[in-house]
Amino acid sequence: MARRILVVPTNHGAGVTSTCLGLVQALDRLRVSVGYLKPFAQARWVGEDESVELFRLTTSQRPPAPIAVAHLEEMLALDRVGSLMEEVVDLADDALREHSVVVIEGLAPGTEQVYSGRVNAEMARSLDADVLFVANASRLDPQRLAHSVGVANSQYVLRGAPRLTPSSLTAAVADGQPKSRRKSVPTRVIGVVVNHVPPDRDPSEFAAALQQRGLHTVASIPDNPEFTRRRVGDIVRELGLEIVNVGDQSRRIHGVEIAAQAAPGYLSVFQEDRLVVVPGDRHEVLMSAALAETKGTRLAGVLLTVGIRPHDDILDLCRPALEAGLPVLLSPGRTYETVTRVLGLDPDIPADDEARANLVKNTMAEAFDEQWLLGLPSDDRLPRSTPAAFRREVVVAAARAEQRIALTDATDPATLVAAINLQARSVVRCVLVGDTAAIEAAAAEVGLDLPAGLAIAEPAAGVEPLAAGLRMLAEGTVDGLVGGADADLEEVGRRAEAAVGLRSDAEVVSSIHYLMLPDEVVAYTDCALNPHPTAEQLAAIGLWAAEESQTVGITPRIAFIEPRSSSDSVAADTERVREAVQLAAGRRPDIHIEGPVAFNAASRRASNGEGGNGTVFVFPDGAAAESTFHAVHRTSGVRAVGPILQGLNRPVNRAPGNGDALEVNEMIVATAVQASRNF
Predict the structure, then answer these.
(1) How many domains would you assign to the chain?
(2) According to the UniProt entry, where is the signal peptide (predicted)?
(3) Of 285, 378, 585, 639, which sees the most CB atoms within 10 A?
(4) Which residue range(s) make up the domain with 175?
């Protein structure tokens, strides 16, 4: 699995693109397979994104075009962050498959993108990325910088399931862990780059202040004016200046001088690489500048203001200097306004400034801690499926499989909306089971047009849609079924078992829920069907849940949860769980399995090899499963998918009663994925 490093600026002017350039260069020098990605464009750029263009100019990277600002802001306004992050996961797919480390550029803050912090945090969660902060130290003392970075760090705390007390409420302390470990909050942040360190500051002061907050400095870069020196051609393009004499547009501007005095007072402004700004009617200043140029003082250029062009005779007198490369520009604005605009230009590197980009890239690359760099490819973190990755995985898997799924609640508006949507996106081939006239009338009532390719199967006279759909499934006419919204789950499970039978290794029909926590998706089983499974059944339920989870991109780490200590049969129940663990481990030694284990211990974040980090939670009985699921669901406030039935010879799932189109959509897609794997 590729290591994902999201580079996040903590304040304005931090240099996020420069840091990405330097990090990619540093890893490339170490022969690490490294990729680069910028998911979102900056609002201030029109046309091609300059960060992406710089990478194409100075490296072998060919990153895809970022998602446009207009689309980003539209999705945020519609509160469709989840769908937006699925697009990010899709955009990153190629880079993550092709490289061992992928550097991802976060959004820079600004008045036009006040949402950058929220978007960056969502990207980190959706891509399961580590975070590298980059901070601008030019106007902050060490303590203030450390404070601002510490505040930003709080957005990247890893959040699994909330900890539960015996009463299923959130708890404030960990169970049985040393105090020193309780104080350590797991975070995505793996380092801080301190950029633009003032010349009068020792970089170690910033590193020490950050270390006090548990943050490691991986690079310190002194403020370097060469990083921000624009060419004359850059200000012409960005300010829309008129060119009086082209000259050498590649000259770097080291400073701006205003020729305000009369001679000889203004002569001091004629210095190497300075842009001299003067009203256009000050012909003597232009001629003096030309003379200085011919005498060997290489000015950056002369910028005339208030829209007054020099007379042709004046230009003829200046001809030797003009032909030697002195640029002369013209602005319609007043002198003060023009100077303010020049000084206010963003210091970002233009997409065609290869020399400046290479200087920044190489300087930043040299600044990184080599030992830190060497540790990046050897990422020992456990892989996690994020909500965005989960949603994308199930849709891609369903679309690839092209399964036919019978929908027996065909007059339900939510079912119709979901079926039309999935048909239009070519994700699932839906078959509506029911009376054609009734289905068409139900669609018309809510303003829906049934597409020509959406199949309808009419049951025989007197046969209800669910029975007809189950018969179609048993005969192989369809690959899966979603229906029975008016029935309870137990009834749907019984009828499905009677129609298609159990898998030989399933023992019983069971259910699984997927809970989309902020940072990952986990599975809970069995929350709905089996109140008190035997050890054999519990082992089979756990292994089936692991296989179901693996199908949708979750790396299974099974945690068999210990019985509640308040139970009268705790000793016998614990032995039953222990036996289930032994059975499961014997059948699937390739899967990480632990238990009996407390839920809080199983769900805690821990380093690889330290236990915890469960992704498939198998509960000892239905009551424990249901109460824990509802407590976590309620306290975390996140979406859940399920219950999904498992163990049947062919997939059957109950349609969500009173569910919206999204819930029905999720159930249909999940059923299609089941069908693609098992049947």
Answers:
(1) 4
(2) none
(3) 285
(4) 3-227+352-375
